[in-house]
Amino acid sequence: MPETTLTLPNALAALRAAGEETRLRVLSLLAQGELSVSDLTDILGQSQPRISRHLKLLVEAGLVERHREGAWAFFRLAERDPAAALLRPMLDALDAEDATAAGDRERLAAVRAARAEAAQSYFARLAPDWDRLRSLHAPADEVEAAIEAALGDRPIRALVDLGTGTGRMLSLLAGRAERVVGLDASHAMLSVARANLEKAGVRGVELRQGDIHAPPVEANSFDLVIIHQVLHYLDDPARALREAARLVAPGGRLLVVDFAPHELEFLRTAQAHRRLGFSREQVESWLAEAGLDCTLHRDLAPPRAGEDALTVSLWLGRDRRRINDMPFRTQDREVA
């Protein structure tokens, strides 16, 4: 349980850390979203060692969080440290017309534009294969509508999207959650997700690089875990589901979206699919083994019938543990 109050020494340390021009500029920039050392170097026009020293002080004071993506390090305002909460009103009160702050924002926009261009270039190389795949199954808006219907209007305190890819699930659901985390093994895909989220105006998302079989996030902490079109890439999908279930908070849910069984062998070579879909019974049994009850299953038919069509399937698993020893309502037990 994170602390909610500050000792006087910790408050003084936080204020001292923020009470320097460059560090205050860094905090103001990080309030707009996470950035790398390279990003901050470009925006602030200072050397990498100098920026790194400032960031080290801010991390030690509890104002900034650091996480790695391979050789890269990204920084964001701390979300759960009370020291960061002390500074947020001050950052919100900064004059938007201040010349220094305005210049920083202008250079931040240029950094984001360059990032978006690089992400678009990467994705353009993949687009032909992705377009072919999308043409074989239900349109994305239909799938997303089914996802939102499956989740209903139940509040989401914290969600994590495992194998977030382009970040689409984060964009779709971030507005409903207090805390949002996206995990992917690929730094390149996280760059795409980061650019897409910035373009969509989605702020406050934690993007992390990591293995879905050993996710670097807290166990029993998320009331919604998502695995969207990921299992068919994995050698051991059952293990991935077990690890995902470990992250689910008591009474929380795990949403799985993937393909029903099919015989499109070209997807193994063209798109590195390891599995050609999953039966309803197979995923439900994996959920049960992981300690989850399958409360909903739904199939979305392809736009056309035929041997080259793909059915999208949704499964919603619910953690068997109770919240505050209270049973779930009957409407949470519906099975499609």
From TrEMBL:
List the Pfam families. Answer: HTH_5, Methyltransf_11
Q: Which GO terms describe its molecular function?
A: DNA-binding transcription factor activity; S-adenosylmethionine-dependent methyltransferase activity
The HTH arsR-type domain covers which part of the protein?
Answer: 3-97
InterPro entries from the xrefs? ArsR-like_HTH (IPR011991), HTH_ArsR_DNA-bd_dom (IPR001845), Methyltransf_11 (IPR013216), Methyltransf_Superfamily (IPR050508), SAM-dependent_MTases_sf (IPR029063), WH-like_DNA-bd_sf (IPR036388), WH_DNA-bd_sf (IPR036390)
Q: Which Gene3D superfamilies match?
A: Vaccinia Virus protein VP39, Winged helix-like DNA-binding domain superfamily/Winged helix DNA-binding domain
Record-linked PROSITE patterns:
HTH_ARSR_2
Q: Which domain of life is it from?
A: Bacteria
Record-linked NCBIfam families: HTH_metalloreg
Q: In its UniProt entry, what is this protein called?
A: ArsR family transcriptional regulator
